[in-house]
Amino acid sequence: MAIQKLEHPMFDYQKKTSSSKEFMNEAAQVMPGGVTANIKYFEPYPIVMKYGKGAKLIDMDNQEYIDYLMSYGSLVTGHGHNEVKKAVIEQMERDGTWLFGTPHSLEVEMGKRLQQHFPSMELLRYTNSGTEATLLALRIAAAHTGKHKIAKFEGHYHGGYDQMLVSVSPPVHQAGDPESPESLPDSKGMSTSHLRNTIVLPFNDAKACKRILHEHKDEIGAVMIEPIQAGFIPADPSFLKGLRQVTEELGMVLIFDEVKTGYRTCLGGAQHIYDVKPDLTTLGKAIGGGYPIGVVGGKKEIMMHSSPVEGADVFDSSQTKSGTAKDVLFHSGTYNGHPMILAAGMAVIDILERELESTLRKTEQLKTGMNELLKKYKVKGQTVGTGSIFSVVLSNMKIRNYRDLQKTDLATRKELDFSLFRKGIYMKPVNRYSVSTAHTKEDIENTLDAFEKALQEVYGGSRF
After folding, report:
1. Domain 13-80+358-458 is of which CATH architecture?
2. CATH fold match for the domains 13-80+358-458 and 100-337
3. Which CATH code for domain 100-337?
4. What gap in Å lies between CA 351 and CA 126, rounded to an integer?
5. pLDDT tens per residue, range 291-319
6. 225-272 pLDDT, tens per residue?
7. Which neighbouring-strand residues pair with 297?
8. Who contacts 124 (Cβ-Cβ below 8 Å, separation ≥6)?
9. Which of helix, strand or coil describes residue 266?
10. Which residues are the active-site residues?
11. 104 and 339 in contact (C-beta within 8 Å)?
């Protein structure tokens, strides 16, 4: 099918988003680079939003978008869901405060509901983010094993702290042998000690992982993995089962980071789909319905290291216990188990127990439609993902890991995303799509119509 090349999708970006440009110039006088989180930035400047409801966002130039970023997957029930709002207001009115600073009933109520869907969480603790959850999980694992080196996988992100900000997006030409990846820093200001103490593993390569873990069996106490890399590149089932087996053999704590996949693959996360039980699980993002929360849960014998009953911690100056602070695993936080957020979290569970299956069906309809359009226009591409998260990958090769993804046409994918901006579809360039319960059949149809027009625009003329 012949396609006529239209104007370049970047042509009128600045014209259509002039208020965002003006705002970002002002913001740069307040915050470095105009943002308070680097993830919010993209060139030439991000679109600034002023209103969101359901599956829609409206920017500062009053342009409406169907939102598929959904705050990087956090808003599984969409923007401003009335049930979530109602739960938050009712908690404040019922309890008289939105922060006790003491134990309270919602901590137990939410915990029991999480355990229903994640039975591997025999005990759990709340944190304020997924990053804090993974950080705590590593400390608990070290306390349990007495070993302080950790292993992670190339291309996997577990939070913006030095231990894990290693080989998340390494330049492939510097990353070493695919079967023995180099540990490379992903930030300025990091000590080189973290590159020695964080061992990098190749995702979906069982043989190489087993060899590396055996080589460091006396040093590594924990192995952390996104069972679905970046929320959309699935692990081979045999790979995860093999990883579970070798970590058990070597006495290493296996941690599933399900911050992205919890509630989005299914209510029980990727571990339910793969039928693999990790020692510890971390959750975040979607479980809070747009509020900041994280959870660490797992085997009782491991989680009990975080119990304060064994001795005095850093805040206990009574000197009535025989143990000292160094004998107790420290974990605290003023906002841990925030009642307002737990109320929101339970509302999210209520909604997903009713509506997650229909959301998964809508996601499959969107993916199928996109794949058919890619085939119709003879574009080398596919949708990759499980559950309500996926990405559009411009390659026909099987994507099994970070290095495979780097071989795809990322430049054209970015161009495609800018073309979709013009047509009312919001997605941070080259990011994954997250579908919510708020997306309607009409939203899916309009998205597919925009996607077809974007393919015509980007792949017209000589490129086609």
Report:
1. Alpha-Beta Complex (3.90)
2. no
3. 3.40.640.10
4. 21
5. 999 999 999 999 999 999 866 666 665 55
6. 999 999 999 999 999 999 999 999 999 999 999 999 999 999 999 999
7. 124, 281
8. 111, 114, 115, 295, 296, 297, 298, 303
9. strand
10. 157, 257, 285
11. yes
